[in-house]
Specification:
Blueprint lengths: L3 E4 L9 H8 L5 H9 L4 E2 L15 E4 L19 H9 L1 E4 L3 E6 L15 H8 L7 E2 L8 E7 L2 H13 L3 E9 L6 E5 L2 E3 L5 E3 L8 E10 L2 E8 L6 H8 L29 E9 L5 E5 L4 H9 L18
Parallel strand pairs: 7-14
Antiparallel strand pairs: 1-3, 2-3, 4-5, 5-7, 6-7, 8-13, 8-14, 9-12, 10-11, 12-13, 14-15
Length: about 325
C-alpha cells in the first residue's frame, strides 16, 4: 500500500490520533505507531504530532505504507438490540430515502461504543441492517441529549453530509430548560473550549478550540427559562458548558450543574438532562434541503407542560439578522 492522506470524518472529530489508528488499523501496535510518529512518517496536516493529539474534522492524516495485517478494518461491535429497542428505534424514524436516514434519538442511548459502553446506536444499526449497508455516522450527539440525528445510507451521502457539517452549512436548533434567566435574553456566546483530564470540558482562552453559540430566551416561568440554542460550532458539550458559564446551567446536567443554583420544586424529572436537538436544516446530498423537527420525548414534554411553555415552532433566531 502506498502512502495515503486520509481525511478525518465528522464523527471522528475530537478522537485521539492513537485511537483513530486503532479504529482503522487495529493490527498496528502502539509501539509501532510511536516509532512512526517519532520519525515523522505519520503527520497531521503536514505537521508532526503526538499520539494523544485530538483530531478535527477535515484534517489530513499522512499514513505511511502498511502491511496487509495492518489493513484489516475494525468493524463496529454488533450489539443485538432487544425487540423493544428495535421497535423503538424504527418508530423513531423521522425521514428516510435511499441516501439519508433521520431519527429522533432517545436520551440515554450513546451514538458510539467506548469504555463501559456496550449498547449504542452504531451497534444497533449494525445488527438491524446486517443484510444491507449499515447507515454511517456523520455527526455526533451526546448520550444524554435527545433529538434529530442524521445518518448517511451510502458513501455519496456520507461525503456530502459530512462536508455540510464541516463547512457549517447546516442549522441545528436545540431546546433547553435552564436554571434562571440568561442576561441579556438574546445573545452570542464566544468561548473557546478544551477537554480536561477530568473528562469535563472547560473554557480555555489560551489553547481551547473556538466555540460559538447563539441563544434566545423563548419564555420564563418561576425559576427557569425555555431557551433556544444554535451552536455555530460543534464542540463536545459546547451548549452545556456555555450555558453553565453564563450562570444558567441546563436543568438535569449532573456533569456541569452548579449545586449553588436553586433546585426546582415540582413534578419534573430534574435528574434528566433537559436538552433536545429540536430541528435540523441541512442540504440533501443530491438536491433540495432536509428540514426536520423532532417531537419532545415524553419526559421533557411533561416538563414543558408543567411550566406551560409553548411547543409551537417558529424561527427563534429570525431577529438576529446580520448578527449571526
Amino acid at each position: 500500500m502506498p502512502v495515503q492522506n486520509r481525511e478525518v470524518e465528522a464523527d471522528e472529530a475530537e478522537l485521539r490520533l492513537d485511537r483513530w489508528f486503532r479504529r482503522h488499523y487495529p493490527g498496528l501496535t502502539h509501539g509501532k505507531l510511536e516509532k512512526l510518529l517519532r520519525t515523522g512518517q505519520v503527520r497531521v496536516d503536514g505537521k508532526r504530532v503526538k499520539a494523544n493529539a485530538r483530531l478535527e474534522a477535515g484534517q489530513k492524516i499522512r499514513v505511511p505504507p502498511m502491511s496487509d495485517e495492518m489493513l484489516v478494518q475494525q468493524e463496529p461491535n454488533k450489539v443485538r438490540p432487544t425487540a423493544r429497542e428495535e421497535k423503538n428505534l424504527r418508530d423513531s424514524i423521522l425521514f428516510e430515502d435511499k441516501d439519508v436516514l433521520v431519527i429522533n434519538k432517545p436520551a440515554g442511548l450513546a451514538v458510539q461504543g467506548g469504555t463501559g459502553i456496550s449498547r449504542h446506536l452504531d451497534g444497533f444499526l449494525t445488527a438491524i441492517y446486517e443484510n444491507e449497508t449499515r447507515p454511517k455516522l456523520v455527526h455526533r450527539l451526546d448520550k444524554e441529549t435527545s433529538g434529530v440525528f442524521v445518518l448517511a445510507k451510502n458513501d455519496h451521502a456520507a461525503s456530502h453530509l459530512s462536508e455540510s457539517f464541516r463547512e457549517r452549512t447546516t442549522r441545528k436548533y436545540y431546546w433547553a430548560l435552564v436554571h434562571g434567566v440568561p442576561k441579556p435574553k438574546q445573545g452570542k456566546i464566544i468561548m473557546p473550549l478544551s477537554k480536561g483530564k477530568d473528562g469535563r470540558v472547560h473554557p480555555d482562552k489560551a489553547e481551547g478550540k473556538n466555540a460559538v453559540t447563539l441563544y434566545q430566551v423563548v419564555q420564563t416561568a418561576l425559576k427557569v427559562s425555555f431557551v433556544a440554542l444554535w451552536p455555530l460550532t460543534g464542540r463536545t458539550h459546547q451548549l452545556r458548558v456555555h450555558m453553565d458559564e453564563i450562570d444558567t446551567p441546563i436543568v438535569g446536567d449532573d456533569l456541569y450543574y452548579d449545586e449553588k443554583t436553586p433546585v426546582i420544586d415540582g413534578g419534573i424529572a430534574i435528574k434528566k438532562l433537559h436538552l433536545h436537538a429540536r430541528r435540523l436544516v441541512i442540504p440533501h446530498p443530491r438536491k433540495g434541503v432536509i428540514d426536520i423537527t423532532a417531537p419532545l420525548p415524553e419526559l421533557l414534554k411533561k416538563s414543558w407542560s408543567y411550566f406551560e411553555f409553548p411547543e409551537e415552532d417558529g424561527d427563534p433566531f429570525a431577529s438576529f439578522g446580520d448578527d449571526i
